[in-house]
Amino acid sequence: MGIRVKGQSFVGFERTLVELKGPTVMAELMPLLPSELALKLRNREILSIGWYPMEWYGALHQAAQSLHGVAISREIGRRATRHDVTHLYRFILRFLSPNTPMGQLKRLHSLIAEGGEVEVEENREGVARIRFSQCEGCNHGTWEDMLGSFETLIELCGGKEAKATVTSGGNDGDDSMTCVLSWR
Predict the structure, then answer these.
(1) pLDDT (tens digit, 9 = 90+) per residue, 27-61?
(2) Dihedral of alpha carbons 79, 82, 84, 87, sign
(3) CA torsion sign, 175 to 146 to 109 to 59?
(4) What is the pLDDT of residues 72-119, one digit of tens each?
């Protein structure tokens, strides 16, 4: 069994995709989704406080990528993160360095995912190297979403031109990914 992801990720995905592509986009995705997931989405049964299979979240990304291109997943991660960080947190984040969220990544990961391992292999001024493992159910879309989230967190903490680059893994079928985040 793969890891589970907080329902807030699904809520943020839908809100962001609708903002980007219009009010009919979720109806366009439904035929591309596993029937159980499509039914839960149609019936509004995905709760922000619930936990759901990562495979479902990956299926959302695969469907969105098939309709709107691979870049949509990173954009969803960026925009959903920006939206989810409330105005209060945005104010607080201005006083933190970009390295601060990287130092708290294990804790942050546990707020949105049950399972998987996170190791910050390097965290210094302008660069962080992170390795995720045992993340069964992740796919290229979920990894890209995560990278977009990292870029936004770094920028909200004052980093400029944040860029996340995968150095290993991070593809469909990979349960691990190593990435380097850089910023100035």
Answers:
(1) 999 999 999 999 999 999 999 999 999 999 999 99
(2) negative
(3) negative
(4) 999 999 999 999 887 657 777 777 899 998 888 998 899 999 999 999
Note whether 153 and 146 are within 8 A (CB): no
The two most distant CA atoms of the chain are separated, in Å, by 46
In terms of Cα–Cα distance, which of 82, 61, 69 is closest to 140?
61
Number of alpha helices (DSSP H) and beta strands (DSSP E) in the chain: 9, 7
- Higher-confidence residue of 72 and 158: namely 72
C-beta of residue 147 within 8 angstroms of C-beta of residue 124: no
**DSSP characters for 110-155?**
HHHEES-EEEEEEEETTEEEEEEE--TT--HHHHHHHHHHHHHHHH
Which pair of structure tokens corresponds to residue 155?
């920028």
The one-letter amino acid code at 182 reads: S
Neighbour tally for 142: CB within 10 Å: 28
**Hunting for tokens 């910023």 — which residue is that?**
183
Q: What is the mean pLDDT of the chain?
A: 94
pLDDT of residue 130: 97
